[in-house]
């Protein structure tokens, strides 16, 4: 019970930390999708680089 009470003191920190991690994950997903589209466009423009 003492450990639970000690962790409850840091509850706002964990809420903020979880929010920051969620936002960072969403930004990372958007950036990966954007870069994948840019890479596909680049390879369509340069078919000699595809290795086929």
Question: Could you characterize the architecture of this molecule?
Answer:
With 52 residues, the protein is mainly α. The protein is 81% helix and 0% strand. It has helices spanning 2-8, 11-45. The longest helix has 35 residues, at 11-45. The chain is rod-shaped and about 65 Å long. The N and C termini lie far apart (63 Å).
Write a compact overview of the structure shown.
This protein is an all-alpha fold and 52 residues long.
Helix fraction? over 70%
Number of distinct helices: 2
Tell me, briefly, the overall form: rod-shaped
What characterizes the major β-sheet? none
Order of helices and strands: HH
**Separation of termini?**
63 Å
Mean pLDDT: 87
Low-confidence stretches: none
Rg over CA atoms, rounded to whole Å, is 21 Å
The strand count comes to: 0
Question: What attributes characterize this protein structure?
Answer:
81% helix; 52 residues; 2 helices; single chain; mainly alpha
């Amino acid at each position: 019970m003492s450990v639970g009470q000690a962790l409850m003191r840091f509850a706002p920190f964990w809420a903020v930390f979880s929010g920051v991690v969620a936002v960072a994950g969403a930004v990372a997903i958007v950036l990966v999708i954007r870069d994948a589209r840019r890479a596909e466009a680049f390879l369509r423009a340069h078919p000699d680089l595809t290795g086929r």
